[in-house]
UniProtKB/TrEMBL annotation:
Listed GO MF terms: ATP binding; glutathione binding; glutathione synthase activity; metal ion binding
Ranges where the Glutathione synthase substrate-binding domain occurs: 227-335
Cellular component aspect of the GO annotation: cytosol
EC numbers: 6.3.2.3
Pfam family, one: GSH_synthase
The protein, known as: glutathione synthase
Length: 507
């Protein structure tokens, strides 16, 4: 980045930063102040046919993952080796076995799968748009994606000349993005269906007020207003994106509450007919996990457990034993792992018929899956002697930034791995997206800098309940653009050099 300043008036930067803070595009600081998320001053572009292809294929990916996540025998058999190599996924597989390993448990009308997924793509210069990864747990920042689109609209309206100066193509048109509303619609649809089921069972209506239901330990008031529980990390900074989604839900008549796993370990109980109850709140209709993708989310030092993380992970299992819509289910988290991505990538398209996809649908999905290779002694030998090391990235099962190894560093990492660890890692074709044709301005901590080699990653959101699309666009629910300098490997808004961006389309 070139830090010579200013490239545009500081008044413009101040206006944009204040708009971002005012509209919740921010991170909470330790002292309870807020700082705006880093953002670009003007959007990136994509060719319209590429974008339309992604709109068509991404709901099919979600349809596939929805079905795979409910194929419990397949999950157990295909991910067994990976679970032995990765302790965290080993614990997830043990939970999955507890939940679905016995035939009797499969007959119980327990948790209902609500798949809120973000599928991340890069538009490779040579191979076209390809999947980077599936995000099935804590697949957030849909509200920030919509707000970035609105921020650029604000720039266009208020500072039109400056906006056009930094626009990549003056003939480009903004891509609509109402991800926040569509995600809220999907969640509200599931919440209302669960709530209506119990209203029917209990012979009541939402206008009759509260009654009581006997939990395991106490009598608790039932809240007949559909209720959404967000499971969050303690003292996290990315709360405003979460609250924006909650506000959109509240506008749809959904009550929202937030709890950590540690809080839930003592506050949940069972009501009649497998109703999930929360102390002081009542019945819960939807549980949305924004935590649970790492050991730390289940670690509670005060419990002084002989087996680390047992109590809080059992809390997650307890939730799934109830008639409640859940994202992400344990199954969904397994089905969106890097290992499953590799398995599906290497599988012939015709095999997708097992999960209800036609051959044409399967081939569409396969068209956006980048090559992946399992780690083995043979693969390591091939990589060290024959491969172009710059064409591959080494990934483990971790979520978020910091879990990838690039280029010449891959051989060093492979040499450190023990054979028992191989199945936790995979090689994936490295994607080299188009660089933005014009330089742009990145704004971080209210300071502007010029970026001459910006590249973008697009995440498309989908929402499916019980395997069926629950948005106005066949399951599609908006997008998130994160851009970064091409010279940087980590593009996360939190953990890397990424900035929020939006999308315009060119013919």
């Amino acid at each position: 980045m070139n830090n010579q300043q200013p490239f545009v008036s500081n008044q413009v930067i101040e206006d944009a930063c204040e708009w971002a803070i005012m509209h919740g595009v921010a991170f909470r600081q330790a002292d309870n102040t807020a700082r705006h998320c880093p953002f670009s001053i003007a959007p990136t572009t994509m060719e319209r046919p590429v974008y339309q292809h992604l709109l068509k294929v991404t709901p099919l990916i979600a349809k596939l993952i929805s079905a795979v996540s409910e194929d419990h025998d397949f999950l157990q058999s295909s991910l067994r080796d990976m679970a032995k190599a990765d302790p965290f996924f080993g614990s997830l597989m043990a939970l999955h076995q507890q939940a679905h390993g016995e035939q009797e448990s499969r007959r119980l009308p327990a948790r209902q799968p609500l798949l809120l997924m973000r599928t991340d793509f890069m538009d490779d210069r040579q191979h076209g748009a390809k999947v980077i990864e599936f995000n099935g747990i804590a697949a957030g920042m849909g509200p920030f994606g919509q707000r970035a689109t609105e921020l650029h609209q604000f720039m266009s309206n208020q500072w039109g000349a400056i906006y056009r100066e930094w626009l990549e193509d003056e003939n480009a048109t903004p891509a609509d993005n109402i991800g926040m509303e569509q995600l809220a619609l999907g969640i509200a649809t599931a919440a209302n269906k669960i709530n209506a089921e119990f209203a029917c069972i209990q012979g009541i209506t939402s206008t009759q007020g509260a009654t009581s239901i006997q939990g395991e330990n106490s009598t608790q008031a039932v809240n007949h207003k559909p209720t959404f529980l967000m499971v969050v990390q303690n003292n996290e900074d990315n709360v405003y994106d979460q609250h924006l989604l909650e506000v959109a839900l509240q506008q749809r008549g959904i009550r929202t509450v937030r709890r950590t796993f540690e809080q839930l370990s003592t506050q949940l109980s069972s009501g009649d007919n497998q109703r999930l109850m929360l102390d002081g709140v009542g019945a819960i209709d939807v549980v949305y996990l924004r935590a649970g993708y790492q050991y730390m989310d289940y670690y509670a030092p005060a419990l002084n457990e002989p087996v680390c993380c047992h109590t809080l992970s059992q809390t997650r299992l307890f939730i799934e034993k109830h008639r409640v819509a859940v994202n992400a289910t344990i199954s969904q988290q397994l089905a969106t792992s890097k290992s499953m991505q590799m398995i599906l990538t290497m599988m012939p398209a015709a095999d997708y018929a097992r999960w209800g996809l036609s051959l044409a649908e399967a081939e569409l999905v396969k068209s956006v899956l980048a090559d992946m290779k399992p780690i083995s002694t043979e693969t390591i030998t091939w990589f060290n002697t024959q491969a172009n090391k710059q064409e591959w990235v080494l990934k483990n099962q971790g979520e978020g930034g910091g879990h990838c190894v690039f280029g010449d560093d891959i051989s060093a990492k492979l040499s450190e791995l023990k054979p028992a660890e191989y199945d936790a890692w995979a090689l994936m074709q490295r994607l080299y997206p188009h660089e933005r044709e014009k330089p742009t301005i990145a704004v971080r901590d209210s300071k502007q800098s010029l970026v001459t080699d910006l590249v973008s990653e697009i995440g498309l959101f989908t929402a499916h309940y019980q395997g069926q699309p629950v948005t106005e666009f066949n399951g599609y629910a908006g997008y998130l653009i994160r851009s970064k300098p091409a010279s940087e490997n980590e593009g996360g808004i939190h953990s890397g050099k990424g900035i929020l961006d939006s999308l315009t389309l060119v013919d």
